[in-house]
Amino acid sequence: MEAAYGQLEAEGYLARRVGQGSFVAARFARPPTETVPPLRTTALAALSQRGHQLVRGGGCSDPLTPFAFAAGSPDLRVFPHDTWRQLCNQRLRHEAATLAGYGDPQGYAPLRMAIAAYLHQACDVRGSADQVLVLTSSQQALHLLGSLLLDEGDVVWMEEPAYRGARTALAATGARLVPVPVDGEGMCPSDDLPLPRLIYLTPSHQYPTGCALSLSRRQALLEIARKQGCWIIEDDYDSEFHFDGRPHPAMQGLDRHDRVIYLGTFSKALFPSLRLAYAMLPAALLEPAITVRTLYDGHSNQLMQAVTADFINRGHFATHLRYMRQLYRSRRDLLLDEITAKLSHLLRIHPSPGGLQVLVELPPGSETRLTRQAQAVGVATPGLQSLYLTPPGRDGWLLGFAALSMDKIRAGVHRLQVLRADLPFTD
Length: 427
Hints:
By secondary structure, this protein is an alpha/beta fold. It has 13 helices and 13 strands.
């Protein structure tokens, strides 16, 4: 102890007073009246223009706990944790040292092969493992592609309404975001729109409306991309969870001119903290994208990539998805039945053939007021208005059901029965 005090005194942190002991040196002590300036204010004052734009976008964060009705949350309680643990242990027993090192920035080769095979079988995505880039998230993919493909002022067509994370990532490049209305057949561009450098789409299950992009519009947008030499980002964020009828094949599979970039993630199909996503890239973008990836975080976790490859190749992934589809469908059906029986005067349901949430429309002008009423009774109801680039948009909620038990769904709807709108829907 005496040696430690001596070292601190030698370095100037302590001062000894004869007969009184040791004290913090005066030059390190903060005067009692001194206040620390707020870090948030100081940091914002020093940001770049791009930094300000990123912060103004509000970020995109998933809820830390699955409360009613958080949108986009999978049920992590029913994941086969024991199987996953066994696969992890097997890999660690045989390849611990190898998997602890730096990895290929393009991704672990066996995982890329498994992803390519799965996408070809499940979504009709064309391309080989050599075209797959493994990333930590679809959000990282959007930032990477925006940096790689867009310059200041370039036009990006965005679905209206659209996923806020994509909007923020692409706007941060300095691009000009042009909202394109969505109807029952998906994105509906008009002839007077400025020509795009990039088109962002969620064609299989539009976020947040839930509609699918029709075949005729897919072909029309692919033709625009061919003529203009622009790129299409196909964000297929929850295509694994389609409940009614046959799922739509990927738009990328229709592309014969290599203009479509296909994005997917394991965050919902497996679990969010896995931090694994992927992009099927046109050949011309592969090497540039890998190079830019090395500037982000180098590579994804090798152990998790290896275990995910084993999980897919041994059939556990297909089994898990089949079970989750059945489970989520039953929860969606219950939510729709409960809303129809108890809240039809307040909520109008949009078709929901799949996904982890249901879009419900509210009476015009009521979203803010009804959201506050819902919060007052302990129910979270993610709003629709914030997903519009050019408000005001439609009033509504995006009600997540996947992470909720049957009892919690019933309880959540029951609590919402006390809500009152000035102008409720009428038959």
